[in-house]
Amino acid sequence: MLERGESIIVCDYWLLSAEWDRLGRADLLSGGGMAIVIPKGPRGYAARLITQGAHRFFTLTLPSDLLAETCVVDTREANPIDGFQRVLDEKRAQEIADYIDSGFGTIPCSIVLSAQPKAHLEYHSVNQTITFKRVPGAFLILDGQHRVYGFHLAKAKLRVPVVIYNNLKKSEEARLFIDINTKQRPVPNELLLDIKRLAETETEVESLSRDVFDLFSEEEDSPLRGLMSPSSRSRGKLSRVTFNTALKPIFSTFGESDAEFVYETLRNYITVWTSHLRKIDEELEVTSPTLFRATMLLFPSIAERVASRFGNKYTKPNFEAIMGPFFSRVRKNDLRHPGNSPVTLNEKFKQALESGFAIRRG
User: Fold this and answer.
1) pLDDT tens-digit profile of 4-62?
2) Are both 81 and 163 inside the same structural domain?
3) Which of 61, 107, 110, 305 has the fewest Cβ atoms within 10 Å of its own Cβ atom?
């Protein structure tokens, strides 16, 4: 509480506004008192004015609850939350909210906004602040719609990096929206999988998949050595995403086996596959995503027959004994043109595997 005649220096006008009203300017300056005051008005926020090409925008941070209150995804919606619920994926927004509320959540990427006329946004160059009216629809979201909706759903409040454009035409807003949402590319899933170990966020299945992938990539006796691509998609090579997707359905077959046993068993199985594929056509590779996933789906049926005939000895000769007749019956065209459905291709493989079975008199 200020008293008459006290010397004060105030840089943010909203901190003094109540006292200004209570005492009046004359009282504040009487009796030797001093005040350095910016005129009263809406709350201001420190901001940097940036120029890029033909555009100028402001960079700053704003409270997450303010963004939820003032931002819209559709300027025709009177209530911002109605617009979020109508246009966006609430499940995705809730995941963001849960991430924030977990206590470890951090979202450093800027929300990109376009100030609307009702915001009455102004820039004050003297103290490098912007002011605007805190009203629904003050800002149109150009990028970060789900994040802002997630802020609304979250219990925790935080400061959020923001980029604000001002005085844009509707056509300029539309072009920026298109540019932002088409020219940005997400980090490849292959790279995310490759670095999950460093982030200590791998599941047990992901950890096992990574170890088996690395063995196939590095071991000298691997039939896939030189054909693995750990952090990106590459034509003619198996990415981590394709490899993990292919192995996930069959991991239950291995029980609690370690990566070395899984590698040794699948190495023998895939070696027989690659050997027969090259006999059919020199250019055939098991690294075709559809073909590789179908071969993995077939593995439990092959392994069951090996175990039934030879016990738990999953050697190359034992796999060959089961798979040799299979390759004599499978349609070669299905191997040359596997299509896009691993499930459909596996059904064809299983028909070929089972078609040679017949009950004979003992």
Assistant:
1) 333 333 444 344 433 433 444 444 444 444 444 444 456 789 999 999 888 899 999 99
2) yes
3) 61
At residue 107, the pLDDT reads 81
The SS3 assignment for 318 reads: helix
Q: With the C-alpha atoms ordered 66, 72, 75, 78, is the resulting torsion angle positive or negative?
A: negative
Q: Which two tokens stand for residue 246?
A: 């292919």
Stretch (H or E) spanning 113: strand 111-115
Nearest to residue 169, comparing CAs of 216, 222, 114?
Answer: 114
Q: What is the pLDDT of residues 207-262, one digit of tens each?
A: 888 899 999 999 999 999 999 887 677 788 898 889 999 999 998 899 889 999 99
pLDDT per residue as tens digits for the range 65-89: 899 889 988 755 555 555 444 567 7
Same structural domain, 210 and 282:
yes
Q: What is the pLDDT of residue 66?
A: 92
Helices then strands, each counted (H, E), the chain: 15, 11
Percent of the chain with pLDDT over 70: 77
Is residue 272 in some structural domain? yes
Average pLDDT on 260-281 reads 94
Number of domains comprising the chain:
3
Residue 362 lies in a domain: no
Verify that 151 and 257 share a domain, yes or no.
no
Does residue 360 lie within any of the structural domains? no
Q: Which residues does 239 contact at the CB level (< 8 Å), separation at least 6?
A: 190, 229, 230, 232, 233
Cα-Cα-Cα-Cα dihedral sign, residues 333, 335, 341, 343: positive
Q: Is the pTM of this model over 0.85?
A: no
* Domain carrying residue 33: 1-41
- Find the distance separating the first CA and the last CA of the chain, reported in whole Å: 105
Residues 331 and 236 in one domain: yes
Boundary of a domain, candidates 149, 183, 217: 183
The DSSP line for 221-247 is T-TTTT-EESSS--TTSEEHHHHHHHH
Helix H or strand E encompassing 101 = helix 90-101
Are 129 and 19 within one domain? Answer: no
What is the rounded distance in angstroms from the CA atom of residue 308 to the CA atom of residue 334?
28
